[in-house]
Amino acid sequence: MRIAFHAPLKPPDNPVPSGDRQIARLLIAALRHAGHQVDVASQLRTREPAGNSQTQADLLDMGKQEVARLLALYKTAPPDLWFTYHLYYKAPDLIGPSVCRALGIPYVVAEASHAGKRMQGPWAIFAETALQAIIQAGAVIALNRADMDGLGGLVVPERLHHLHPFIRGRVRPGRRKHAAGPVRLLAIGMMRGGDKLQSYRALARAVRGLRASDWHLTIVGGGPMSRRIRAAFQPVRERVTWTGTMPPSHLGRIIADHDLMVWPAVNEAFGMALVEACCHGLPIVAGRVGGVPDVVAHAETGILVPPENDHALRQAIASMIRNPQQRQRLGSAAWRRASRLHGFDGATRRIDRIIRNVTGASCGS
């Protein structure tokens, strides 16, 4: 079928790397792998982080203009389905619901969230818009299981689906070297403000207090906060290697050369880097936040610590440094679990079943 795809938070061809852009691209790839024709319907970004009423009004007007443009474009050849990825009160879908109502086609959303407390205040209009889109959807796909509680009161069970985040390519264990030397720790994350900056600062505080001497940390990522983040690690600068931003195609090789992923995951939805690590059999120490426990099974594939608890994070890292047998056991279990849950082919089949059920087509058609 022909699918119109829209990502209001960040278009899939945005030049700035991010987990959000990566997931949008993966969803498009999965839909195409299932045999569907997928076109990005609009480049309109609706994210409004400041709660500015005038900016929101301007975006609403731009959304109306996009709806008019698309209805003219689709007049003779409408899509069979509209698929929106990632909408919430700061970045609602201002296009898809109106287009779908006008054309009489199904509307599907992936990674939608609802925050009832935002129905009042500076984002009230955007929150209501996001809410109405969720209610209209023929299917809502949650990649973060933590979102399902908020969605459960809005979406009937048969329309609400959970999809484990996934990667493209083979899920396979890394070939770790076991030569003598320091335990190789790995952290991957964009260097931007807000939660990412707080995660890096928490990690810096944790490793600065490590008593163990046999470790070295590689940090993969770049961005506007790189100088501040480097400064946080200054006391242990001789133990840190900085790679800068790396393309996703290189991450598997980087992960395979390390022994343990460490990430505080401050306010993380689930963390695509954590998914990548599991798929390559790397054990993880991370914060127990949001959907992270759905990716990292505590004491089975990694160690989860209370959020924003520097002491617990430090203790967990130190324990894993001292215990190579535990790292081996958790890493092997991570790969086995990822093989079941995070593979591309399995995700493709599940997404295809969901959208075909919405359109009323059989999976074999």
Fold and architecture overview:
The chain is 41% helix and 16% strand. The chain is α/β, with parallel strands linked by helices and 365 residues long. The chain folds into two domains: 2-168 and 343-359, 3-Layer(aba) Sandwich (Rossmann fold); 183-341, Rossmann fold (3-Layer(aba) Sandwich). The strands form two sheets. A six-stranded parallel beta sheet has the order 2-1-3-4-5-6, with helices on both faces. It has a six-stranded parallel beta sheet with strand order 9-8-7-10-11-12, with helices on both faces. Helix 5 (148-152) links the parallel strand 5 (139-142) and strand 6.
Integer tally of domains? 2
- Which structural class should the secondary elements be placed in? alpha/beta
Largest sheet: 6 strands, parallel
User: Roughly what fraction of the amino acids lie in strands?
Assistant: 15-25%
State the distance separating the first and last CA atoms: 10 Å
CATH topology of the largest domain: Rossmann fold
Q: What is the name of the CATH class of the largest domain?
A: Alpha Beta
Cα radius of gyration in angstroms:
21 Å
How many strand units? 12
User: How much helix, percentage-wise, in residues?
Assistant: 40-55%
- Contiguous low-pLDDT stretches (5 residues minimum) are 361-365
Output the helix-strand order: EHEHEHEHEHEEHEHEHEHEHEHHH
Mean residue pLDDT: 93
CATH superfamily of the largest domain: Glycogen Phosphorylase B
SS element count, helices: 13
Shape: globular
CATH architecture of the largest domain: 3-Layer(aba) Sandwich
